Amino acid sequence: MPHPLHHFLVNSILAAGLYLLNLADSTAALTIVAAGVLIDMDHLPEIVGKNFREMIRPSVFFNIRKFKDASKKSRQNYLLLFHTVEFLALFFALSFFVPVLLFIAVGFMAHVMTDFFYTMYIKKVLKEDSGHLHKYWFLTPFILHWSIRADDVSRK
Predict the structure, then answer these.
(1) Residue 38 CB-half CA count within 13 A
(2) Which end of the chain is more exposed for a tag (fewer CB within 10 A), N or C?
């Protein structure tokens, strides 16, 4: 997974570009940056795992290589709800009724695209398995898979 500072940088560049093109005011630009970083709240089950104290130490958090090593140790198989296509579509649809949600959705999308391109880089260039983090880009198959597994368990 990309480091939170990568997401901050990518979303800051996007927000600055939209601001310079007069497509977003300063509040909207800050909303894009905040949303692009805070979307990672769905990683809390991973971070609060075994290596929480290690991952929040400044010497680890601000060292990208150490942070990634620590995060690999705490990975579990869970759904990153905010990173799913359905969640993004919901935010874009709701933005027709609540305009501020558009800038939150743009920040979320920039974050997810950064994750997606990073995953492609890891798989294609480095020839590594990126683990489970981006296994479920879509919520529906995850729910169906979970439902099928629950049915199998209840039959036994």
Answers:
(1) 10
(2) C
**Could you read off the pLDDT of 34-73 as tens digits, one per residue?**
999 999 887 776 666 656 666 666 776 666 677 667 666 6
Contact 84, 57 (CB under 8 A): no
N residues, the chain? 156
* Chain centre to alpha carbon of residue 133: 9
CB of 36 closer than 8 Å to CB of 110: yes
Pairwise CA distance, residues 10 & 1, whole Å: 14
User: DSSP letter at 21?
Assistant: T
Query: Does pTM top 0.85 for this prediction?
Result: no
| Token pair listed for 64 | 């990208």
The Cα–Cα gap between 57 and 8 comes to: 19
**Tokens for 116?**
């997606």
